[in-house]
């Protein structure tokens, strides 16, 4: 009985040491830490590697001034028109779609991405983490 207790104590101690080492050494994410990416977000480097269709959800004036090369303008207020333009591009060559707006705090890209996921359930759709600011940096 005492040897069984010693075995459980040894296993418990080793497990605790391993868990602490993983948390302190950065091998495992801290359970209380916020995830770096929200659901449906993508980093710029990952989006560029995927050869995506870019959707600019900023104002038309901002789009006219500068935008990601080959990005399509998408006005949330003109949903049907934007959806038709997007579908034309996507049906010609299906690939992931990434929506971006001005900055990380802008919620427009996330709203549009969510709506597009409902409208095009077979498409792979993301919002760009950091928005236009990420592209400029």
From TrEMBL:
Pfam families: Rhodanese
Parts forming coiled coils: none
Domain of life: Bacteria
Domain Rhodanese: 51-137
Listed name of the protein: Rhodanese-like domain-containing protein
């Amino acid at each position: 009985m005492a040897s069984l207790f010693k075995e459980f104590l040894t296993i418990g101690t080793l497990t605790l040491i391993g868990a602490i080492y993983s948390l302190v050494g950065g091998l495992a994410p801290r359970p209380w830490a916020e995830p770096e990416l929200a659901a449906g977000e993508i980093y710029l480097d990952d989006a560029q590697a995927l050869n995506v269709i870019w959707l600019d959800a900023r104002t038309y004036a901002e789009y006219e001034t500068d935008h990601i090369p080959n990005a399509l303008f998408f006005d949330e207020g003109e949903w049907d028109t934007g959806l038709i333009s997007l579908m034309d591009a996507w049906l010609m060559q299906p690939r992931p779609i990434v929506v971006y707006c001005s900055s990380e705090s802008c919620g427009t890209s996330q709203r549009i991405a969510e709506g597009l996921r409902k409208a095009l359930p077979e498409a792979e759709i993301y919002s760009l983490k950091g928005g236009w600011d990420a592209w400029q940096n």
